[in-house]
Amino acid sequence: MEEANQSVVSEFLLRGLCNSTEIQNFLLLPFSTLYLMTILGNLFVVLLIITDSHLHSPMYFLLANLSFVDFCLSSVTTPKLTTDFLKENKTISFGGCMSQILFVRLFAGGEMVLLVSMAYDRYVAICKPLHYSSIMDRQKCIWLVLISWMIGFVHAMSQLAMILDLPFCGSRIVDSFFCDIPLVIKLACVDTQILRMLINADSAVLATTCFILLLISYTYILLTVRLRSKDGASKALSTCTSHITVVVLFFGPCIFIYLWPPSITWVDKFLAVFYTVITPLLNPTIYTLKNKEIKNAIKRQISQHKDSRSNF
User: Fold this and answer.
1) Looking at per-residue confidence, does 71 or 288 come out higher?
2) Quick one: DSSP state of residue 11?
3) Where on the phi/psi map is residue 16: left (φ > 0), alpha (ψ -120 to 50), or beta?
4) Using 50, 70 and 90 to split pLDDT, how confident is the model at 245?
5) What is the rounded CA–CA span in Å between residue 94 and residue 80?
6) Residue in 212, 209, 208 with CA at minimum distance from that of residue 255
7) Does 184 map to a domain?
8) Which residue, 2, 7, 81, is CA-closest to 38?
9) Residue 312 in this model has a pLDDT that exceeds 80
10) Residue 1: predicted pLDDT
11) CATH classification of the domain holding 108
């Protein structure tokens, strides 16, 4: 233990997605394109909701925040991943590694709670439509977003505090394309079994609680929809389908990665890519393609742009 405490790690080595230089060169353009599309797609949703007065409602306020969180989550890992395709030695400083752990946990934890808030908004809108405006007022929406950020921050800081002072020695190779707790903690030169159990329990409590609340909310919504008129049920079901799709895409990989025993294989890396790279791109795409209000807002923006050009 004394020898371990004397070890000072200044950087870690990321193994990346694969060892083949040819494959990495091939992946550079697709991943760069995906990241660019993610940034543009999420920022477009945020700006569209801000500028279009027809979208100034609780549902779209929460959606704008979801897009912002996806933008942040993707930006934590994807730029490093793409630049590492060009490097033989994929190093990351100790501070950079801890920062990745902090922000991935912050944004992932915050997004879980935000998805619950969006489910609550749909529950009130569909199950208590006459009281919707009084329940989901502006102050309530702001508090829901603040709570999601606070829970994400507490979740991230509590887990980072558990590993920040761990002594590291021997191997410095992180078998992935970004630093995450299950991988980094394996490199510590002390017994971390109890620590791993605490971290897994912390993640399990947050993920399971959010997932159960989401299941209850959408089950109650779908049961309520069955009793409504056909037109109203169709519109409500269409809105909920987008929400449920996003929930499944986000929670599926997270539950597999963080609640299963860590055994990094190509499957684990694919799932990590899916929820840090693919899902932040799919979310704005799903809401844009499935939501009539968003599509109408896009048409209004295009029409206004054409009118302003013609007047000029």
Assistant:
1) 71
2) E
3) left
4) confident
5) 14
6) 208
7) yes
8) 81
9) no
10) 41
11) 1.20.1070.10
Amino acid identity, position 93: S
Residue 155's domain spans which residues? Answer: 11-311
Q: How many domains does the chain have?
A: 1
Residue 281 maps to a domain? yes
pLDDT tens readout for residues 190-233: 888 889 888 888 888 898 899 899 989 888 888 887 776 565 55
The neighbour count for residue 250, using CB atoms within 10 Å, is 24
- Could you read off the pLDDT of 248-301 as tens digits, one per residue? 888 877 666 655 655 556 677 888 888 888 888 888 888 777 778 888 888 888
Contacts 24+ apart (CB under 8 A), 33-40: 34/78, 34/277, 34/278, 34/281, 35/74, 35/78, 35/79, 35/82, 35/277, 37/281, 38/70, 38/71, 38/74, 38/78, 38/277, 38/280, 38/281, 39/71, 39/74, 39/75
pTM above threshold 0.90: no
Q: In the beta sheet, which residues pair with residue 173?
A: 13
Label the pairing between strands 11-14 and 173-174: parallel
| H or E element, residue 154 | helix 138-163
Residue with tokens 């994400």: 152
Q: Say whether pLDDT at 3 is over 90.
A: no
Tokens encoding 232: 């109203």
The answer to whether 217 and 120 are in contact (CB under 8 A) is: yes
| Cβ-proximal residues to 292 (8 Å cutoff; 6+ apart), any chain | 238
Terminal-residue alpha carbon distance, the chain:
74
Determine how many CB atoms are found less than 10 A away from the CB of residue 259. Answer: 12
Q: Is residue 7 classed exposed, middle or buried when 0-12, 13-18 and 19+ CB atoms within 10 A define those classes? A: exposed
